Amino acid sequence: MSWAEVKANWSTGWRELQRSALERWGSAIRRDPKSFAPKVQATVDELKAARAHLDHMKPLLPKQIKTADDQAAMAGFSRLSARYYELAAGVYADAEPARSEVGIAPVIVVGGVVLGVAAIAWAVAAHEYAANLRAETALADRELSARIEASQQGRTLQPSTLPQPKKAKDGVGWLLVGGLVLAAGAVAVPVLMKSRRS
């Protein structure tokens, strides 16, 4: 799957972040794209570090899922890997290899690729997400390595301390219960008021 295809499948949240980033910084980037280079470079560096942790983890993952820990390791890796691709797509979807001449368009060259206004705005807006991803992948990498070392030595480690993805709350169920309570109140109150008057 190409970077452009990953970006085309972004969630509404990522699309909104891109839209608001362009709205907030687009004009300033067009005026002086080079002033954004340090923040863009920082984001690219965070993404590279996260990718390095994911690459280190991949061969360490269980070949067959036999335990709940194996399943958790695979699910965590898949979640972090998907987030890497989503964040990196904002930078690389429209990037082109750098040449000696980049023309007069508002672009910067970072890591050997030419980045335009949308990629620059995304890199600025997504920096904290990239830093968080780098921290999470570093922790997951360390924990996976420690678990493998412990199993090779016959030791048992405590349960994982890695953050688990939040489970979505069933908002529809609570909405239905609230609606039923409201409807019951709408029926019961007039009946009670009528019986008090008689």
Task: Give me some keywords for this one.
198 residues; mainly alpha; 2 domains; three-stranded antiparallel sheet; 7 helices
How would you describe what is shown here?
- With 198 residues, the protein is mainly alpha-helical.
- The protein has 2 domains: 3-167, no CATH class; 169-198.
- The chain has helices at 3-8, 12-31, 37-57, 68-92, 117-125, 127-152, 171-197; strands spanning 96-97, 108-110, 113-115.
- The chain has a 3-stranded antiparallel sheet with strand order 1-3-2.
- Strand 2 and strand 3 form a beta hairpin.
- Helix 4 packs antiparallel against helix 6 (127-152).
- The radius of gyration is 25 Å and the shape is elongated.
- The protein starts with a helix and ends with a helix.
Give the count of helical stretches: 7
How many β strands by DSSP? 3
Domains (count): 2
| Helix/strand order, N-terminal first | HHHHEEEHHH
- Bulk shape: elongated
Terminal-residue CA separation: 74 Å
Average pLDDT confidence is 82
Q: Tell me the strand order in the biggest sheet.
A: 1-3-2
Describe the secondary structure blueprint for this structure:
Blueprint: H1 3-8, H2 12-31, H3 37-57, H4 68-92, E1 96-97, E2 108-110, E3 113-115, H5 117-125, H6 127-152, H7 171-197
Antiparallel strand pairs: 1-3, 2-3
Helix pairs in contact: 2-5, 3-4, 3-6, 4-6
